[in-house]
Amino acid sequence: DAKTTQPTSMDCAEGRAANLPCNHSTISGNEYVYWYRQIHSQGPQYIIHGLKNNETNEMASLIITEDRKSSTLILPHATLRDTAVYYCIVRVLNSNSGYALNFGKGTSLLVTP
Amino acid sequence: DAGVTQSPTHLIKTRGQHVTLRCSPISGHKSVSWYQQVLGQGPQFIFQYYEKEERGRGNFPDRFSARQFPNYSSELNVNALLLGDSALYLCASQEAGNTGELFFGEGSRLTVL
User: Is the distance from CB of A92 to CB of A29 less than 8 angstroms?
Assistant: First the structure.
């Protein structure tokens, strides 16, 4: 699976949009971009995933550049409860070698009042 | 519906001892994965089991083993504990073996003294 690069930490004011970037310049054509987050002392939580089109769900939006070498997770109206470590992960959707996620170190997002 | 449940939540062992961690997946989920999360790092993949067979194995020594039972619950066993095995052990379940999102439990916090 391709490697991802994320900033170590970011801050965001409550109520503003949080834009979390991720670089995955070596991504292959059949690899999806997944985002998970981990709130302190909890297990990781799935947020969203996509291949090349922008995706939106009730939690967030995922914007993938046309060349697919980078993406941005957008939390449209960040709340204090969104303070967490956010992981950008690239993997093949249906791999015959099992389903293993490479979490990396992620971005620690702090939402401030 | 109950989420992924893990037991015990916390435990303390001494070097050289053995530990067994248990996981019950979400009802209807047939795949269970195990991850190790050392303080300050993202989760690292250990094993995946699907329909009671090992589907994937991460870069962990043979001291780590696991199995999945007919009811799809799972055990992770670690022999000859080392100080470096101190970590949060996360279990995740998913409906199928190679697709879909992972649902994580709260983890078992292991401290090796």
Answer: no
In this structure, which amino acid lies at residue B34?
W
Q: Does B108 touch chain A (CB under 8 A)?
A: no
Strand intervals (E) in B39-102: 44-50, 53-57, 64-68, 74-78, 87-94
Of A44, A93, A101, the CB nearest to B99: A93
A96 touches B at CB < 8 Å:
yes
CB nearest B106 (choices: A43, A103, A105): A43
Other Cβ atoms closer than 10 A to A33: 25
The pLDDT tens digits for A53-105 are 899 999 999 999 999 999 999 999 999 999 999 999 998 765 556 678 889 89
> Is the CB of A49 inside 8 Å of chain B's CB atoms?
yes
| Minimum-distance CB partner of B56 among A36, A85, A99 | A99
Report which of A91, A93, A83, A112 is spatially closest to residue A20, judged by C-alpha positions: A83
Beta-strand relationship, B103-104 and A18-23: unpaired
pLDDT digits (tens, 9 = 90+) for B19-64: 999 999 999 999 999 999 999 899 999 999 998 999 889 999 999 9
CA distances from B14 to A53, B67, B81, B84, B86 (A): 50, 23, 7, 11, 10
In the numeric block, the tokens 């947020």 are attached to: A47
Q: Which of A42, A86, A89, A101 to mutate to test the interface with B (most CBs of B within 10 A)?
A: A101
